[in-house]
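user: can you give me the structure for this one chain? tokens are fine.
assistant: on it. calling the predictor now.
[tool input]
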Amino acid sequence: MLNFLNGTATAMITPFTRDGINFDAFGKMIDFQIQNGTDALVILGTTGEPVTMTEQEKEAIMRFSVEKVAKRALLIFGSGCNNTANAVEASRKAEAFGADGLLAVTPYYNKCTQNGLYEYYRALSDAVHIPIICYNVPPRTGVNILPATMERIASLEHIAGIKEACGNMEQICETARRIRGKCDLYSGDDNLNLPILAIGGTALISVASNILPKETKMLYNYMREGNLSAANEIQDRMLPVIDQLFSEVNPIPAKAAAQMIGFDAGEPRAPLTPLEPAHAENLRAALRNFGLNV
């Protein structure tokens, strides 16, 4: 499946209070994204901390998102799990709630084989009627979708593409070669946005765009226009911020940065902890140097 997602997609943080989700703050974040040109919102991805949310909270945020976005952007809900049956159930539920597409991370912890990965995505593809984005992030999951495996997965009916966050450009280039014309490649690493677009990536699924949605979209547009000089210039400006957004495990710094620029982002849920003071100081300095009022 080709051309489901083009442009920029923000892997949204979830603002929490002590009692649950701060929907007022989340609604403001959604509006901020859409007003600044973001094409799609990824809800309940890694950055949204779904593993610490109850099923009731997940359902509530899906309902809220569908109503709030009101077709102004694509809505992609995270549905991956290390239990295939649970991932199938979550995918069907997300489709029923109104998702335009799904983001399905590889099964984590179990460390299945490459054939197990194919069977996992085959089960998801058979279960729904909307596009599925495979999410490859081996530093978190311990499982790596190898290029030959992704070529097999790309043949499945509802597979729209792969969000690549393996960090290995040699592997990503080989994956791009094998899936070209079958499904799409998306950047899942902000520091690799430019080179992934250069080898044919069609979209950026970004953490940094929680804070810099306008600039992330500008980078994408410059690359689509073939203006490599301007794309390099804006990527060079963004990289110090991106570095600080990953000074601790995502989304700890992203939530701190959102708080710094004026959103009631709250703190991450345990076992994640608030950003350490030294890292917070460096993050604030990077945002200021970028030109943000923090």
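assistant: here you go. The first helix runs from residue 23 to 35. Strands lie at 7-11, 40-43, 74-78, 101-105, 132-136, 159-164, 184-187, 203-206.
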